[in-house]
Protein 1
Amino acid sequence: MDIKEFAQEFQENVKIAAEMGNTDFDTEVAKGILEYMEDNGEVNAPEICTFQKTRTRITAYDYNDEAESLDLFYLIKSDTVLGKVNNNKVQQGFNYLMSFYREAMNGTLLRTVTIENTDEIAEVAKLVQSTKGSISQLRIYVITNGLTDPACVPSSVESSDDDFIIEYNVWDMKRVYQQHNIRSGKEKVEIDFPIEYNTKLQCLKMSDENPFVDAYMAVISGVTLAKIYKKYQQVLLEKNVRTFLQFKGKVNKGIRKTLREEPDMFFSYNNGISSTATEIETKKSEGTLYITKLYDWQIVNGGQTTASIAASFNDMDVDLSKVFVPVKISVIRNADDSDMIVKAISTTANSQTSIKNSDFSANDPYLIDLEKFSRSEWVPNDSNRPYCKWYFERTRGQYIDQLAQLNGYNEKSFKIEYPKSQKITKTDIAKYEASWNLHPYNVCQGAEKNYALFVADIKRERPMVTANYYRQIIAKGILFSTIDSIVSSKKLGGYKANMNAYLMSSISFLAGQKLDFAYIWKYQRVQQEVIDKVEELIPLVWGHITGHDIAGKQFTDVGPWTKKPECWHRLKLKLGDFDKFDAELLQKEINDDGSYLNEEQQNCIQEAESVEANYWFGLANWAKKNDYLTPLDRKNAFNYGTMRSRNRSFKSLKQAQIALKLIEKAKELGYKG
């Protein structure tokens, strides 16, 4: 597929998305480009927010407090497929966004337009103001479905108060097409140092005794490393994990200070980079060994160093020609060992940095099991033959990867079997689960923080993934999406993400966390009674999180407020005035094979759930003190206590049976409770 064919297909997909979602064509163009940027790892989680007046415009924004980065986006739509966007238009786009930033920061943005305090643009203006003194980079992006001249992008500059860097970027169809090819494997990460970068890496080869890898120590210049990263971006960072590794602002500031003030000392100050490759080509010249080519090069430790150097590429105050970085390269001898070795090197190399092992959770058995059911569980279709499934994306970009490998009939079949609208990610699941488990304040912390908390819960509770468990996850996703659609239709303005999380938790609370998800899975829609309840709850939840008084004046800073557990606890008190869901809407307990539990099985679960948390904690302490029971039994007792202290139910008949047998065993050994 050449770039013209790709652009035409991109355009067709945009049209289909606009028709199916009843949305604006321009909005879908922006979403399509931003999705590739997210997949690339350059941006975190942009939100669409279109606004314009004479000299001020914006299409989307993205604030990453961990990276201390504020990103603003403006879409220039091409009139024709791959139409040329002239340099003046691109510069105008940069000017629109800088004007937006300045006016939002000084409070003049909304003076000449009719905007309610609750409109989303008012929220974005407040967000921009809140970043004062807390960002290290302001990134300005022009995005377009046309083609641009690379020379039209200005160099990075320091802000007027020297507090942050202003970086200018363009993503056009050529850039999107390149990302597509990298994802599909049609453009490999193959580094030809002499041809592409006019250099070669002096290196030292370790002994040949290792049966798994050939190890090299080398030195790479800052200029070369920056150019390579600018081309490949996130693809260069541990492809088997593809977790978001955007560098932290504080770390970046320290690195930037060294780059500016002592570039010739960078080699001595920095720990360097650990990397892997599948093949290497070397050349000896005058007794010195040089690396000339690397195939499938992956940086597994040193992402912050690499990204920081690349961010300084256009900084006039940084002389990258004086910057050199130590690099360790492990060339994996056997391709079959690649995944295992890369994973091991990644985890070990990062063990002393701020990157946690939870970042490598893509290969966790829990997620692998979810992926397995995602590929086997057909969506019910009444009496007709099922034709589609939900696609769980275990690793970043997996859906695009798989789709890009196909063409013709196979590509069409894949799109029918796995519609793009039925793709869910790890962070999506974390959002559904946290909301349903009555932790909306975690969701409001942001996708990355909420996911980290979710991973911790999974590691602690280790739920058994069955077909029924997977179907419930999807049903929760359908419920969340339904809530999102209802909230969108109300045109409340901002805080949609906060509303979605708190409404989902409210529904869970009123259902005692036992909504009939079997119904939602079977019919792929939410019960009308639940929809009516969402409609009924919206005024309450909206008033609660925004803190509006009777006169309609907002007196709550919504972002920080909704991140506090207190916000949810106070809302629960107000929910006491609402009727709980009727029994026919609640989950009927079922076995893993889908059959309903009989009376005896239901009684078994109820008996296990009647045991209080203190009993389990006491049992665990007693067993440990007297060295009774197995370590697994003691751990289970403690886990049951934790589960019941959080008012969580037993997830299966099997779990309840194990719990009751454990009580019997403890009683036989003399535990009195």
Protein 2
Amino acid sequence: MMTSEETVAFIDIGTNSIRLLVVRLNQNGSSTVLTEQKEVVRLGEGEFAHEELSPEAIGRAVTVCKKFVDLSLAFGATEFVAVATSATREARNADSFLELLQREANLEVSVVSGKEEARLIYRGVAAGIDLGIARALFIDIGGGSTEMVIGGQHDHITLESMKLGAIRLSNQFFHPDETGIVSRRKYAQMQQFVRNAIVHPLNRIRKVPYSRIVGSSGTIQNLAEIASRLYPGTSTAKVLRYEDLRLVIRTLCSLSLNERKKIPGINPDRADIIIGGAVILELLMEELGIREIEISPHGLREGLLMEHLSRIPGFPHAEKISVRRRSVVQLGRSCRIDEVHALVIVGLAAQLFDSSREAGLHQYSDQERNLLLYAAYLHDIGNFISFSDHHLHSSYIIRHAELLGFDQNEVAIMAEIARYHRKKPPRKKDQVFGLYDAVLQDMIRTLALFLRLAEHLDRTHAGLVRGARFEKGTDGLVALILEGRGDCTLEVWGVRSDMAAFRKVFRLGLTIEVVDGVGDILRGELPG
């Protein structure tokens, strides 16, 4: 663990935009985002024809970087990690630009290669999705280059970086004063150019199997947003269908620049380069037979953060654990939960879930088990706001936190489980619980009961109960066998208070038996 807090600023100087991420690294192995900023500077505007950054573009970039440095210092940043990508690495006057950044903005910038850019993008995007044992193809279309990576949750297999980008292609095929519609002939020329450029990289990509496709970058995100607005029945802001992308392109090409800026969902700042990015994505999806692509909001900037955190012992990012586990631990530590108690509850909840399944009380799968254990770890997170009604605060925090690797339904279920870990059990008249169908209500009621019982079993936070298991008895009864050390009277009383809830869920009565326990205080493990 770190001995003191530290604030680090990460700056990504791209061909189209400059992005800032300021993060406070906490002593307990968590991190807190203090600010995120993005400014469109068009550093690569006109560069790829002359191989030089223009004085105007350099001026815009230096101004923005100076502003970002000042903002970071205001947040207490003591370390800066800054990289520049395609536009800078290909410019003949890159050295003078970097020297100006050092002199005017007091910012030391590293220029990364295409493959290193691809690797950092992969790190940032993979950190935000739950791949499990699957492999994914990652596609990122920047202003000057396009990166493609095949990798799993923790390691990449192949890296590709191509000199194709939204600004580069737009500059090549459109004059600055060309603001009309895009003819079929012009678009066909762009398609042929891209086809020629991607032949060899795609031949290498096809040799490695993958089962998911994830797209990142502002271009892909914006195309997905447009499709979700024009074709909400088939595409969303998180998933873009190939057929909808083709329809979007057809619409974009039929409009003048001014009309393009008004199309629903578009970022007006991208209206002049969006077609250049769209043709790249269209051809990649077409050639690889991709029917739809998942959209990620993360990228190189987040990759810089992951790279930095992975080098710090004690941070979950330094371990090869799942995205879900890492994001849950990060949230819990950020809100300063009692982690020892949280892991005791995780262990007890797991034992109750597993033994009741073995006893035939339910047939829920490991998927539901995992959601229970994550909710168990976070059940007291609401104490960060106030102990009073902290179960309600816990539910709110979980529901509104950015828990990477989970979908909205899973987050909602975890929030409800935590909501009912104390006070009254779920009731149909409850505002949120009452909205769910009967099947989901039964699942939440069951999982919340396991959490309630686990919480009773560590009521004193002393770890007196070293183990708990259900055993199916006779005469309509179930025995709860507790392995205890010392006086477990309060823990037993707590369980007795929920006997009626147990009978309502399982239609069976409950008996409690305490036996001598052995071993250390129980410490559960989160999935992944």
Protein 3
Amino acid sequence: MIRIKALGVSEGLAHAKALVIREVDLTVIKESITDVVAEQKRITDAVEAAKKQIESLRDQTAKTIGEAEAEIFNAHLLMLEDPDFVEGMTGLIADEKISAEYACFCNCENFQQMFRSMDDEYMQARAADIGDISQRVLKVLKGVADNQIDAINEPCIIVANDLSPSDTAKIGTKPVVGFITRVGGRTSHSAIMARSMGIPAVAGMGDKADDIADGIELLLDGGSGEIIVLPDAETLTVFEGKKKAADERKHMLAAYKEKEGATADGHRIIIEGNIGTPDDAVRVAELGGEGVGLFRSEFLFMDRNDLPSEEEQFEAYKKACQAMAGKPVIIRTLDIGGDKEVPALGLEKEQNPFLGYRAIRICLSQTDLFLTQLRALLRAARFGDLRIMFPMISSVEEIRNAKHVLQQAKDLLRVEGVDFEPNVKVGIMVEIPVAAVMADVLAKEVDFFSIGTNDLIQYSCAVDRINEKISYLYRPLHPGVLRLIKMTAQAGNAAGIEVGVCGEMAGTRGFAPILCGLGITNLSMSAAAMLAAKADLAAVTFEQCKQLADKLLEAPNATEAEEIFSAWMD
């Protein structure tokens, strides 16, 4: 038996065999062949197999996510059916007597170069699609599974270097009971999505993951970050006892589904859910969420090689609004950059991306991109209480400029005779320290604040939140961070606007009373954390919340603040 400790990023207990997902090496070398006909047949057979894979993916995506999201796969099918594309490979085999693998590689390079040289931006973006479908054909030729996750049909705990948002989304449709990643932390996208789906997860394993072999029995505690390899009988008995207690608590929390968020003496705190896809909104509604406090719209743009159209975005936002049946749905405009990439935009690599060209800065410089999203949001607002939130705001000028583009979107829709909701509430993310310091001024410009604690903590503490070497410096209970939160809450309360927290602090066990005591009115978190937050609030009075918050604010450092919190939790 081996005990391994890493970082727990999504609470829950799991017991199953490991499924180790290894990086696939698709490197090819130039090899000569003698049987041209046989090698050409290998190519045509691989293309047909790739088509079947894509058709399956298209149908699955249309069923689980939506028809609009499935359109990218139709585009891939059209490319595979293009005679020029296929004949480019068979022709190379005939002319140069090279292997099917190398012909596939060369053909991909030729077509990508052709598309990149075109003046049309849309056609340039097709180069990435060529890369995707060529890689799929190459995997077939090498006998490599398209995606191990697609083939899962029995309970398992996934062990991987990392998981992309699309891979994590696939997990939600499979009997995956937990996952472990070598890299990442609490704020990595795979961790955020794991919490949203209620799947136990551990991150930051590093080389310790080498101790886990495929098919080996594992126990996983997503709260403590402990993993037990090949547990003995005594350990299994203890684990089952913990799992039984966790199930009993889960049953107890179910009683809070129909209850509003409030302290024991009736002080209201609205409990909402964070989502990344429209389908996530259904889970928020099912678990008693009082709204969606954060729809991360960037997930519609990631893990694809084109940009979502206005119509595709409209359908996604509309679906989320309909799922919440009139409850508020706050949609954050495109927040990319930092650790979030959108291939279709082709953004340059930066030395310090978290402080660079990202979020509202991109949208205000690429107004066509921004206008498309704002038009979709305004149209979808007719189907619910949709609210628009701008990320990474640092000044009044940015708010006014963003609102100016929003007005342009309204004017265009009005001229075109397109139905939309003109009276949409507008808010901002408070995640840059200067925004918290200037909150009293910014509050006059917007209808609500939402504090993004993930970035607020990393900027305030000068710590890269995804750097495992300095993760110990990422301290949510640092008194300086708490003071910035209180400062923002006071400014918002004085202006009569709602002040929410949508970062990971909102859903951290026991933190709801602290944030309540600091003056926060709304808490938005993963759907799986909402019931526990309601229970934490219901166990204390508003006065107790304020007393706890005051003690933490008075602490001289993060360590003493954490000790105060631990004692309070005990």
Protein 4
Amino acid sequence: MPRLCWWQFCARSQATDRVALREGATMVQVGTPPVWSRRRVDPAEAPGRTPWRTDHPLLGCDYNPEQWPREVWHEDVRLMREAGVELVAVNVFGWAEIQPAPDRLDFDRLDEVLDLLHEHGIGVNLGTGTASPPPWLTTAYPEVLPVAEDGTTRWPGGRQAWCPSSPVFRELSLALVDAVASRYGQHPGLRLWHVSNELGGHNSLCYCDVSAEAFRRWLRARYGDVAALNEAWGTSFWSQRYGSFEEVLPPRLTLSTPNPGQALDFHRFSSDELLAQHRAEAAAIRARSDVPVTTNLMVTAHQRDMDYWDWAPHLDVIANDHYLDHRLADPAAELAFCADLTRGLAQGRPWILMEHSTGAVNWQPVNIAKQPGELLRSSVAHLARGADALCFFQWRASRQGAEKFHSAMLPHAGTGSATWREVLELGRILRALPDLAGTQVSADVALVFSYENQWAADAPNRPSELVTHLQQVHQAYAALRAAGVGVDVVPPGAPLEDYRLVVVPHLYLVRDTEAAVLQDYVAAGGHVLVTFFSGIVDEDDRVHPGGYPGAFRDLLGVGVEEVHPLPEGVTLRLAGGTGGTVRRWTEQVRLTGARAHRLLGEGPLAGRPAVTVHEHGAGRAWYAAADLDPEAQRALVEEVLAGAGVQPEPGAGPLVEVVRRHAVGPGPDFLFVLNHGDRTVTVPARGTEVCTGTAVDPTLEVPAGAVRIVRLADEEPS
């Protein structure tokens, strides 16, 4: 057995997957362990997960001092203080820096950076450094490299070149985590632990032989025997029946459509494997430190492979990375949805925006720069919807590497730039909001969202590839946002009694227990709006019996005899005086208790229902059986909201966001108004406007492109 250094032995006791370490030299640690790192936290003493709190909103950033000479560090810290930066993420991609060779640890530079930040009153968000293995690791252990669906290996040179199921990577990464946690777990400047980075951003699905064996273990645990797996996957179709688990593979590239149940379970497995890496790193940290632990999620339109509803309970604070996606029709609406979803993952508690950008990113086909004022608007949009910290990637724009054209707080143009001036303005506004932290957003509307539905509903061979799950979720959310109502995003099966209205867009996959929660909610007096292709299959992607909309058929009082997708570019008029059109999707609906509310005005289904409403128990269930155009969908949403007694925020609209954060205990409420339009708007408000420091009563004017935040005055007694 090779000789192992002290930190490798510690890590071995933490690992969840065991491998025999390869023969190697004794580890040499460079740098004397500082006094603050000597005490090891006994797990028996540790109070368990530590909640993250801040008594005022924080401005933060991702910092990569390893890219810069030491003389730059002091200038950076001085400018951070000027901008109001209070939380800095370091060592996110630090593995090669602190372990330059398999037998050598070098903490000298990281020691200096942490001490420098602490001396200047800046808190540290310390990365474990495990996001990307250094070249020596993948050279020595090429078996950790991920394999794509087509069987080809993905090589080093980018980032995240590791297989989530690799026991070699797991053990070596945990050894690094234990070394970092042992050294810095008691550092006085440490505010937060940052596990890895955007787990699964590039390596979420690995199809190698190691992953195949891990997948088989996962399936054994899920199904117990291969007969149950065959039943769940419907393997009687196309002669796919398995005789043993050893015959099962990941859904590698096939000549025809792969088994949908196999693909769905592989997504579940892959999300669980990455979560296991987070949990293993977090356990190694918690054995050495009682500082809160998180990882930066990617609650965005382009992350489809991790089920964050499963991940959220394992984070001490929810943290998210979000960048405006200009490939979408309405990037600002997608930002708002993702912020509300992040708050949902946090169960209504404040959360951290771990990364966003001051300007353009570097990874979209055309990287659009933010317009004047847009930096402030996009930042405050997250703040309004529950964030208690706003952090940017990154602090200083890189001069080399794949992200050298990604914007930063300190851009290539330096402190004479408009970007720097907007950063200073954001820092000033956050310092003027000491009593905002801890306030929460409340909503009368819940929108049901499921990551499993992205995997199942968007699978090949569906009725129309013009329709995607997230597209329909975004459309429903955009209509609610334009109507000016607050929205909580919740998973299927979540308690619903606190909401006046529940919106269920395109919920293709639903369990019987989840459908029962919705049915009971409506029967007790709730209102629900369900959109087409919902309730179709169960958790095994097996069609619910009795016809569409399956699990929701009795709730909605309709049956669907056949779906009639529309070709690209084809629209059909709705009948009736209010106008409107449908596109992409229609259905041949049969009324079984519901009444028609809107009819199709032309096409082969002319005269058939496009929207229905059903009185179910003491409540009301609406069904949109067609893909309504934005104006028709907004009109329907406004009618449904009115019937449910949901009051919109005065002054809100498609280009004007109005959001409230409410004090949990004593303290003021806050009103956020974001004007995305090109003209001044007026909303009712009474209190003190924070951005300008002016008194407001009875109305607030918000110039084009501006944001305003009102510390609301107490309501006068009636």
